[in-house]
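Section 5.1 Outputs to date
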Amino acid sequence: MKFLVPLMILSCLFLFQYCKTTTYTPENYPARQIVFGSGGGFAGTYNHFYLFENGELYKNSSTDAAYKKVKKLKKQQVAQLFNNYEKMGLKDYKINDPGNMSFYVEFKIGDNNHKMLWGGTNETVDPNVKTIYSILTRFTKVEK
């Protein structure tokens, strides 16, 4: 009888060890995600943001490769961004026009990646792309 309590505690600890949630990084996240950022200029530094379908937002840069969690957004907001991407026909829009300062949005859906890169002066950017980029960058602001 005196071994029953320690045995129960040990069993609970063992079970809780397997109840941990899986932590994902942008490299191994299995669902849809949006990658966006900007960079270039004199230093050539790029800032990258990774918005997961589950609402988690991470960042890193070309000078600091470690992923840092910025915040968690509502799943409905992220779903709306993916819906807008589809409804606006952006999956068929192609632009690869880097400049001194470049901006990009990349939608990763399954095995398909669609990246839109702009900043140069050779091509006109679809206003819908700029709107989605603007919305995404607003999400990167941390409320105080």
